[in-house]
Design goal:
The complex is a heterodimer. Chain A is α/β, with parallel strands linked by helices. Chain A is built from 6 helices and 5 strands, in the order αααβαβαβαββ. Chain A has one domain. Chain B has 3 domains: 97 residues, Uridine Diphospho-n-acetylenolpyruvylglucosamine Reductase, domain 2 (2-Layer Sandwich), CATH 3.30.43.10; 126 residues, Uridine Diphospho-n-acetylenolpyruvylglucosamine Reductase, domain 3; 193 residues, FAD-linked oxidases, C-terminal domain (Vanillyl-alcohol Oxidase, Chain A, domain 3, 3-Layer(aba) Sandwich), CATH 3.40.462. Chain B is built from 15 helices and 20 strands. In chain B, strand 8 and strand 9 form a beta hairpin. Classes of the chains: A alpha/beta, B alpha+beta. Chains A and B meet through helix 5 and helix 6 of A and strand 1, helix 4, helix 10 and helix 11 of B.
Chain lengths: 144, 532
């Protein structure tokens, strides 16, 4: 579903894409593909040097992609947590290591955790957080 | 099969877990190693050592009745419980229990915002409600009230208030325990109590008047183990028309004395409404000369001013705070502040951000210092995204409390800098944070590691800081569970009379000693031998 937030985030990513040399974008390819596999939501910290390439690939692959600027709090509150609450989900991202540390810790309460981690050259980490359906956790979606 | 709590047989423990499942449902009792690992203290100064505080299991109730059911079973089996609201204050122990083998009572499923009154500017919440949850609730409903959030904003209102945490906005809101009004508590016997006006079921003022009738008992449920708080009311700040964030800087080290005196007066007169940070930008980092001066424990003002001059004459101290209210009032408050502090030679005043409310979503995102506007965030961690940051290694907070006097802030930085250096650590950045109206809390980060050798050094450092600061009149206001016994020893007037009173209360309120044994060194009679 396209909403205003989607549109703004997507526009930002596309604007960034236009400034990314093709070779650099392609260079991020194999890692990005692996991390994005199966993700229903992709989040990208636009402050990171690899952000534009990663976001471009995610959008090109048809992923619902949101960009943020260093502080992942609002995305957690408005996008990530509501999805984790509803049911099993996979969320991919490219963030700083400390942001991933936060998200992993928060996601564990919902029975989800980091299942793939792919460090980049800078502090950036590509990752996939997914619900582990066998794992019990206080806020895990109720199993039927 | 999980390891049972000390003194509970494997058979009894298994029976207790089955009974807990009957109360809350199988899905909400956690006993596998993988599931219980959620409650490990990732920043533990005892990580991987035999003494590390670990839970035996966890249980997540969704109602007050379920909490009462859990307490009943715990009494039957003498099962130690450790209630948490969200358990996310990593620098004070996270979700790990004070007493190894305890069953964590994880209250995150009790996450309902029960009431918000825009007219009365109050709320009533359950213990699983996080700052994110309440902020989202207010924003979604376009309620013109602010929360006062801890930073980071992932913690819970009730847990943070009971630990006496603080925030950043107005004086009536940022001392989170002081900002509460009325609670509901499941006592260790299972009995349900409401405090203040809530003891009258018809009262329309439970969240408006704190005291009720008779002794006011709310305080005994903070930093303690006398019950499981299942509801709490809080006062909320009405959204102001505007806010102005400002900074005041002074050039020399000793200028902090008139600066803090002046700020304290302005806060006492309610001219400055917000929390005030007094920090030294010059004393951050690991510049070798800075480390040498801090580690010397007694560098002179002249040495420090020379250090500052060599770094481009940057201001030695900076104070940051916010005005909230009608624009005209803010302008007058700011002008008065400039008049009051203008006598300090070289003082500079700067407006760093200005806001008119309400903010759009985009404007909220762009706010640099969100907590000062009551917006929960994870921004603290974004500063750790620099190359070389090691988020898997953590830190504890060492938080001595000093009077609002610049002389004490200088003496404290001298003393703690030397303690860090003597123990082989780079001195922590120090600032004085005026959360409370008449004191400063001076947070120091004490690093923790994932290896025993380094953690042994850390524990030695922490103990030296606690003892040394208490000896100088700066005891801590809050402390990690591993050091709560040491912390309480610093409050030993008259042979530990206060501690004896705590344990007298414990014996009366919790005869089987089931709720959070050892928290703040309050042990039930049957476990007093467990005290190291």
């Amino acid at each position: 579903m396209v909403n205003r937030r989607n549109f703004v985030a997507g526009s930002a990513a596309l604007a960034a894409l236009s400034a990314v040399p093709f070779a650099r974008s392609r260079a991020a390819g194999p890692r990005t593909e692996r991390v994005l596999s199966g993700a229903q939501l992709v989040i990208v910290d636009r402050a990171l040097p690899e952000a534009s390439g990663f976001a471009a690939e995610a959008i090109a692959a048809g992923h619902d992609t949101r960009l943020f600027d260093r502080d992942v709090g609002a995305l957690w509150m408005n996008e990530i947590e509501p999805r984790l609450r509803l049911g099993p989900v996979a969320i991919a991202g490219l963030t700083g290591a400390a942001t991933l540390f936060c998200l992993d810790l928060l996601a564990r309460d919902y029975g989800a955790h980091v299942v793939q981690r792919s460090p980049a050259a800078s502090d950036a980490v590509g990752w996939l957080i997914a619900t582990h359906t066998e794992r019990k956790a206080p806020l895990a979606p109720q199993r039927s | 099969m999980p390891t049972p709590p000390p003194g509970v047989s494997a058979r009894d423990f298994a029976a207790a877990l089955r009974q807990l499942e009957e109360v809350v449902g199988r899905e909400w009792v956690f006993s596998s190693d993988e599931d219980v690992a959620l409650y490990r203290d990732g920043y533990s100064p005892l990580w991987g050592e035999a003494e590390e505080r670990k839970a035996s299991a966890a249980v997540a109730p969704s109602s007050v009745e379920q909490v009462q059911g859990i307490v009943k079973i715990a009494n039957q089996h003498k099962l130690p419980l450790y209630p948490i609201s969200t358990g996310r204050n990593l620098t004070y122990g996270g979700a790990a229990p004070a007493y190894s083998g305890s069953v964590v009572v994880d209250l995150k499923r009790m996450n309902r915002v029960l009431d918000v009154s825009e007219r009365d500017k109050t709320c009533l919440v359950e213990p699983g409600v996080s700052y994110f949850d309440l902020y989202r609730h207010l924003r979604t409903n376009k309620t013109k009230l602010w929360i006062d959030t801890a930073d980071p904003g992932w913690g819970g209102l009730i847990g943070n208030a009971l630990d006496r945490g603080g925030g950043y906005t107005g004086i009536d809101y940022r001392d989170h325990f002081d900002a509460h009004c009325g609670m509901e508590v499941v006592l260790p016997t299972g009995e349900l109590v409401r405090t203040g006006m809530g003891a009258n079921p018809q009262a329309k003022t439970w969240q408006l008047f704190k005291y009720g009738l008779g002794p006011w008992v709310d305080g005994i449920f903070s930093q303690s183990n006398f019950g499981i708080v299942t509801k709490m009311g809080f006062w909320l700040m009405e959204e102001p028309q505007a806010a102005l964030q400002v900074a005041v800087t002074v050039p020399k080290r000793r200028d902090v004395v008139p600066l803090v005196d002046g700020l304290h007066s302005l806060m006492s007169a309610h001219t400055i409404p917000s929390q005030v940070n007094v920090v030294s930008p010059l004393m951050a980092g690991n510049d070798p000369e800075l480390v040498r001066l801090r580690g010397s424990g007694g560098a002179s003002d002249a040495d420090w001013d020379k250090f500052a001059a060599a770094r481009g004459g940057a201001p030695f101290w900076a104070a940051q705070f916010v005005y909230y209210g009608p624009r005209k009032v803010i302008t007058a408050q700011w002008e008065h502040t400039k008049d009051a502090l203008g006598g300090i030679a070289g003082v500079k005043f700067a407006e760093t951000a200005s806001y008119t409310f309400p903010l759009t979503d985009e404007q909220v995102e762009a706010v640099g210092d969100k907590a000062r506007l009551g917006i929960p965030s994870l921004n603290l961690f974004s500063s750790r995204s620099a190359a070389g940051a090691q988020p898997l290694e953590g830190h504890m907070d060492f938080s001595p409390m000093i009077p609002p006097h610049g002389e004490d802030l200088i003496a404290l930085t001298d003393f703690t800098g030397k303690v860090y250096a003597d123990q082989g650590f780079t001195p922590s950045f120090v600032g004085g944070l005026m959360f409370h109206p008449r004191t400063m809390i001076c947070f120091h980060a004490v690093p923790t590691f994932r290896n025993a050798a380094d953690n042994q050094r850390t524990r030695k450092l922490f103990e030296a800081l606690v003892r040394g600061c208490a000896d100088r009149g700066w005891p801590i206001y809050r402390i990690h569970p591993v050091f709560q016994q040491l912390g309480m020893q610093m409050f030993g007037f008259n042979g530990g009379a206060l501690h004896r009173l705590h344990e007298t209360l414990k014996d009366a309120i919790d005869p089987n000693g089931i709720v959070s044994p050892g928290r703040y060194d309050i042990w039930p009679k049957r476990l007093r031998g467990s005290r190291a």
